[in-house]
Write a structure and sequence with these properties.
Largest sheet of chain B: 4 strands, mixed
Helix content of chain B: 40-55%
Largest interface: A-B, 50 and 60 residues
Oligomer: heterodimer
CATH class of the largest domain in chain B: Mainly Alpha
Shape of chain B: globular
Distance between the termini of chain B: 41 Å
Number of domains of chain A: 3
Helix content of chain A: 40-55%
CATH superfamily of the largest domain in chain B: Butyryl-CoA Dehydrogenase, subunit A, domain 3
Number of strands of chain A: 10
Strand content of chain B: 5-15%
Structural class of chain B: alpha+beta
Distance between the termini of chain A: 13 Å
CATH architecture of the largest domain in chain B: Up-down Bundle
Structural class of chain A: alpha+beta
Number of helices of chain B: 11
Strand order of the largest sheet of chain A: 1-4-5-8
Number of domains of chain B: 3
CATH class of the largest domain in chain A: Mainly Alpha
Largest sheet of chain A: 4 strands, mixed
CATH architecture of the largest domain in chain A: Up-down Bundle
Shape of chain A: globular
Strand order of the largest sheet of chain B: 1-4-5-8
Strand content of chain A: 5-15%
Number of helices of chain A: 11
Number of strands of chain B: 8
CATH topology of the largest domain in chain B: Butyryl-CoA Dehydrogenase, subunit A, domain 3
Chain lengths: ~350, ~400
Amino acid sequence: MDFAFSEEQELLRAAARDYLADRWPSDHVVTTADAEPSFDGKVWRELADLGWLDPSLGLLEHAVIAEETGFALLPAPWFSTTALAGPVLDAPLQERVAAGERAVTLAWAEPASWTLRGQRSSVRADGDRLTGSKVPVADLASVTDVVVVAADGLYVVDLVEHPDVVVPLSTTDRTRRLGELRLDGTPARRLDAGLDRLDDVRRRALALAACEAVGVSQRAMDLAAEHTKTRQQFGRVIGTYQGVSHQVANIYVALQLSRSLAYWAAWAVSEGDPEQETAVAAAKAFATESAVLACESAIQVHGGIGFTWEHVLHRYYKRAQWLEAFEGYGRLHRAAVAAAILDGNGTEVAA
Amino acid sequence: MDFRDTPEEAEFRRELRQWLTGSLPDDWTERAPTVGRFDVDTSRAWSKRLYDAGYVGLTWPKEYGGGGAPYTHQGIFLEETARIGAPDHIGGIGLGMAGPTIIAWGSEEQKKRYLAPLLSGEEVWCQGFSEPGSGSDLAGAKTRAVLDGDEWVVNGQKVWSSWAHIANWCILVVRTDPEAEKHRGLSYLLVDMHAPGVDVRPLKQITGDPEFNEIFFTDVRVPRESMLGQPGEGWNVAMTTLLHERGTLGFALTAALERQLRNLIRLAKLPTPDGRIPADDPVIRDEIAQEWIDLQALRFTNYRSLTTLAKTGVPGPEGSVAKLHWSETNQRLTKLALSLQGLAAQLDGEGGIWDGFWQYQQLRSRGNTIEAGTSEVLRNIIAERVVGLPRSR
């Protein structure tokens, strides 16, 4: 039993933290988020240079990057490219991604079938042309390619060639906007990877969403701690009031519990552990709900300033809400856990 | 990162599982959970069997009767005993608090005298920390000890002492220097509970059970050498005790919660008199799943803390959340169990489900957020010592 990242993984974390602190201070995150979304080749090549787009990275390395990019609120389509599209790309496209030339997202959702689990697509292929609509699609306006889940398989559409299929949608979290993909006989290339890979995509994405939520919680806690250590009211630092400090303590508790579950989930998926389904369900539900609560408490202890557009907190809050909504709110994942622990024989509850 | 057993851990787990199956009655796992603890004789006999098989004090030094094993073995022991619902060792306070403190602070002579009978269950320990006037505020203790020749003479009153009615020894925090600053005037005695002047009175709890006691000390004479640390070092010694109470306890709490959750799932699958199965109700399923998730969060947080302990020698700060999280999870779980029973939830004896098992567990759980550091004190500790907020008082 060893619950620690390797030395190499810790080096990756330190490098990620340095890069993000240097290149993505909050004001730059905000400026980028408020600009119109587009593929930013310069940023993308920086991530490629860091090795973050390298197909040889394992899920635990992705877990480290997801946590740090959540902490910094990196407004680039790394999650879409790595967690959602990455596992199904073919070698030529993978190489172009790794070189920083292409960014890719995955289009699976549509109103009648919006989860990866049990996905039933209405997009039809006629030879190498696709027709149908997918909505919402993460980062659609910030990538160069989209992998489309069609009824009979996975296809990739080049958005540089066919920009008119993208319809941006107003999104609460401006750092990870959603869009609608409208395909009408649009040329596409069929991928070798089949629909059977979507379960693996889902598990990886849930684990990484949990890790990213941990980063969000950590930032919310740091902001809350910093503010309550310095802000004075009634002649005292407000962190001395237990009504305030206990909210910060609660963020800390939920953060540590989330982190344990998120790392466990990432490990379980990377090893194909028999518990991987319940692990990702538990981690995703707990970590994303905790991140939302962490941001809400952080906003509360900031008082009025925490409620302003100017303060960065609402950006984190909205990312936490994005993550909570992704692939279904907590109760959907708890239903999966319940099925695993209640519908079998016996009372086996050990992880 | 790897959560699987090493080959050596797997072998230890296999042998333990085999030993437990062979040592408990054949129908053990089918029996309904019981309210009462085992009577003292049965509990002592079970403790002795555990000891003889080498499963008590697994991580303690070998020269004092321990196993000299890594912390992971203790974790495996707790997981496996929870899985099969094995009875507890009789000496919880001794194993979790008195023993580790004696190992850390005791003289060679004291270690030789006290540790082996503690492990075997022959001698039971209780804790004399809280007083009527100082619960969370341990440094406010008023029980006095005055040196008279070669003996300390103790006068005062302690409260909330679990197991004092069967205890042989007490770890007792006393004030030896009333002039000193309050943290510096304390000392830490090892007191014979059968000495003249020790009077134990059971305290009935809201469960109706006398698990706690008051202890009155009237001119109790304690040998001068029966002290851990020097006079005036009592606060530091007591902090060692509490560190162990709140630190390595995580695995025991996980084991206890796992046992409760298994009982809850068993309950949720029993048909109610009107033929419904609670485990089919989507709202109940959601709540049980949340309990399961809370259990795993506790389990893996312990693993993380244990890894930090193994690598650095001190438990990580994440360990401070274990007791806080466990207590509130257990309270929710036991209330959920009652809510599955309708008005029958009021039946706390014969005629009730499992003879009032859940009625007892639910009431008992209210103590979880009070004993061993109230949740308010624990939140203060997290806010001040871990997050680094300014002191609230």
